[in-house]
Amino acid sequence: MKIGIVFFPTVGPRDKSAQDYFDEALHLVDLAEDLGFDHVKMVEHYFFPYGGYSPDPVTFLAAAAGRTRRVRLGTSATIPAFVHPVKLAGKLAMLDNISHGRLDAAFGRAFLPDEFRAFGISLDESRSRFTEGVEAVKLLWTTENAEWNGAFHRFGPVTLLPRPVQQPHPPVFVASARSLDSVAAAARSGHHLQTVPNAMSVAELGERIGLFRSTWSAAGHRAAPQIQLSFPCVVSDSPDEARRKGRLDEQRNTAAISAAVRSWQSTSSSAYPGYESLANIGGRDAFDDKLADDKLLVGSPDEVLGQLERVAARCGDDIVISLGVHSGHLSVRDADTTMRLLAEQVFPKLLTSG
User: Fold this and answer.
1) Is residue 218 situated within a structural domain?
2) Which InterPro entries match (predicted)?
3) pTM confidence score
């Protein structure tokens, strides 16, 4: 099991300045490098405290690349629908070069109506724009004199510079939280999977992982599939303190997503069946239920070790875990403590038990 960190800020100017948040996050990047974490990832969102401090994860990851030599750097995920594929392929290829081949490129459809409205793009086009965008980026990475004549973009013949360091291209992940069709399509295309257990039931997570693995196998891909799961995480020597802080963080994160999805009350799209129900996402405090189902990794080092072992037993010990250690609501000292306790007291035991 590989374990890294993912940054998903859920704060705005009333909580903390963006400058302070990024200073804190880059401190934690240094810590991830020093303590042996596998990777650092950053999301892409706009406008709301729900991820809005990160409209361009590549910018943050380029800063992280300049101060690290070992950890992998991942988008979580960048949105092809919101940028021309020539621009996106070039930005990601630059990052792969700056980091000496440490990029993991995850792509997502996006799901917030306000974001699509701002870019002047129809929600109904999201899947086709996503598919075309990813394939066009891969073509630019791998083909000289590349030409594309799609539904949304046309270019070529052009040869992208710089070429990616990783050949034939950086690992490609698809971020999917709800759609089984997206999971199956990713596996058929040979794309790895990123998903969020917090957004589904334990049974639904098992169904998605099983579908991904079986579809990948049926497609005959030579490489082993990668599955990345993201979890909020708070660790303390005091279990009560960890749960108190974890509950606060979960409540603030839920409030942030509740505000961001409110427009689903008056929005519908055939590309997002059932998403209208997201408007009720903040209706109750589900911290205890989520903790019991290991959707949140919160507690003492031994308690979180037990949670990680249960996750591995359910999902496979080859999964990659991304820990949300700093949404911005708890202090950076809390995130620092979480990472140090994991590295010093959890990772060695996890390796031994594995």
Assistant:
1) no
2) Bact_Lucif_Oxidored, Luciferase-like_dom, Luciferase-like_sf
3) 0.93
**Residue 67 within any structural domain of the chain:** no
**DSSP string over 113-149:** HHHHHHHT--GGGHHHHHHHHHHHHHHHHH-TTEEEE
pLDDT digits (tens, 9 = 90+) for 251-296: 999 999 999 999 988 898 988 888 888 777 765 568 999 999 999 9
Q: How many alpha carbons lie under 13 Å from residue 42 in its C-beta half-sphere?
A: 23
Note the residue count of the chain.
354
Q: What is the CA radius of gyration of the chain?
A: 19
Question: Among residues 83, 85, 81, which one has the least CA distance to residue 123?
Answer: 81
In a domain, 268, yes or no: yes
Q: Which domain holds residue 261?
A: 1-36+226-354
Evaluate whether residue 79 is within a structural domain.
no
Residue 342 DSSP class? I
Structure tokens at 35: 């303590």
d(CA 289, CA 292): 5
Instruction: Check residue 354 and give its pLDDT.
Output: 43
Number of domains the chain contains: 1
